[in-house]
Amino acid sequence: MTQILEGIAVLGAFTLYMIPSIEADAHNRDDAFAITMVNVLLGWTVIGWVAAFMWARRPATEKRLTHLVRRTHRAVARVTIDKLVAHAQSRSALQSQMVGKLRVRTRAVAVRQS
């Protein structure tokens, strides 16, 4: 009889420990796996368990997701613009070097022809 009570107590404690993961799964959250990992790895601390629980209960609003997408697009655009500017600067420097070489060659050809 004691083993049965101990088993029920362990099962109850495990269920209580996993409540944030159960909540995330019940709400069909896209980040349920991440919530479960936080719960399993940091749930033994009270702060980790509370953080996972609050994360599981907080709704994933469209505004928050839209803001994240917008920030990501801006970051990608900045990187792309920086690469384009760097390419244009290197090409400009290369063209100025080539123009100088062409002038020297043009003068050398003109000297040979005269």
Give a verbal description of the structure.
With 114 residues, the chain is mostly helical. The chain folds into two domains: 1-59, no CATH class; 61-114. It contains five helices and no strands. It has helices spanning 2-17, 19-26, 32-42, 46-57, 62-113. Helix 2 (19-26) runs parallel beside helix 4.
Tell me the span between the first and last alpha carbons.
116 Å
Whole-number total of structural domains: 2
Number of strands: 0
Estimated share of beta-strand residues: under 5%
The portion of residues assigned to helices is: over 70%
Biggest sheet descriptor: none
Oligomer kind: single chain
* Unreliable segments of 5+ consecutive residues: none
| Overall mean confidence score, pLDDT | 85
Shape: rod-shaped
Strand and helix order: HHHHH
Mind sketching the topology for me?
Blueprint: H1 2-17, H2 19-26, H3 32-42, H4 46-57, H5 62-113
Care to give the gist of this entry?
By secondary structure, this protein is mainly alpha-helical.
Question: Key features?
Answer:
114 residues, mainly alpha
